[in-house]
């Protein structure tokens, strides 16, 4: 359990030497207790105090990593209940479950399908970043063979089995990948803990309810395995979300032992819609690893998109570089559109222009990553700013005509912009989805 600031203070040297950058030891204690400083910043703390303070300095939720070098997935170390309080930091692993009962052709097709679950969105590559192999056969040989084949995907592996010996045999063929072993339970935890400890792998803990899982986590930790992930999958989506929420809350408040670890869920619903909805709930509510039996792109892409949206820092909108972009083989007569440097806005406009097959310039203005309406309302997208951009060398050298298409949402700017720039202002559609039609009809007739 965590120490409070005053408890921390009692263990510090109390010399107020300021070497840590704080004016007093008490100020440092307060920072330490709230995870805003690390113990290493005080060079004079004694070894005994260091040992006692380790708990206070440790994050409330342990950061746990698994997977091969370069593709390692790290989950946990979250600090808030709500994204807007600060940020969520470690996006969940989203992975598909592959049973060890597939024949060679089916397994090969399944692995190829998993390999294809990688997409570009708003300038970033998103994709399935975990693969789980489940020991459905109950036998060791097919489990090991499937793990061996899945290893070639190069993704972090989860080895799902109820038999510690099977886990051990499977880890033996992918030990360098540092897989996550799933899962120790009430009757098997000692054997699983032994495998995890010997093989230096993280271990998932499962149980009938959260109390049982937390109690087991304490026992497994005492047995020498620190990297744990709690499988809190319950019978219903509601019960699972409740458990995920309880773990996050109790861990952040340091109100219980055995909960300061990331969580894992497995969605096995045969109804694809329900399975998808369950995964969405688990991604939104704190799961660190979300495994599903779904595997088609139309089911996986929205899950990845949801995760990508939640795990961006709300304090720093994702931005693109403000500059003049081109789409297609532009000529000096190609249309020029204006938008903001909010990444989502730019890539939406860019993909619609691309689909129109009308080569075009897109002028992206610096708006601190805000969307069109927000930028306009806060004067970050003013007529003066747009006019200055239109008069810049980069635009006047590339574009021969003097017509600019502004977003429909800022039609109110058109009069002032015409005065400030001397350009002809064309008001585009409000939504980017209207751009293909606009470019093919209005622009080409303009
Ligand atoms: Fe106190 Fe250590 Fe900071 Fe010096 S460096 S003020 S002893 S906490």
Descriptive report:
It is built from 17 helices and 17 strands. The chain is an alpha/beta fold and 446 residues long. It folds into 3 domains: 5-57, Orthogonal Bundle (3-methyladenine DNA Glycosylase II, Chain A, domain 3), CATH 1.10.15; 64-310, Dihydropteroate synthase-like (TIM Barrel); 324-445, Rossmann fold (3-Layer(aba) Sandwich). It has an 8-stranded parallel β-barrel with strand order 3-6-7-8-9-10-11-12, surrounded by 7 helices. It has a 3-stranded mixed sheet with strand order 13-15-14, with helices on both faces. Helix 6 (164-172) packs parallel to helix 7 (189-199) and helix 12 crosses helix 17. The chain is globular, with a radius of gyration of 27 Å. Bound molecules: iron/sulfur cluster. Residues 12-13, 15-20, 22, 25, 28, 42, 44 line the site of iron/sulfur cluster. Iron/sulfur cluster is lined by residues 12-13, 15-20, 22, 25, 28, 42, 44.
Tell me the Rg in angstroms. 27 Å
Strand content: 15-25%
CATH architecture of the largest domain: Alpha-Beta Barrel
Small molecules (ligands, ions, cofactors) in the structure: iron/sulfur cluster
Largest sheet: 8 strands, parallel, barrel
At the fourth level of CATH, the homologous superfamily of the largest domain is Dihydropteroate synthase-like
Secondary structure tally, helices? 17
Shape: globular
CATH classification, class level of the largest domain: Alpha Beta
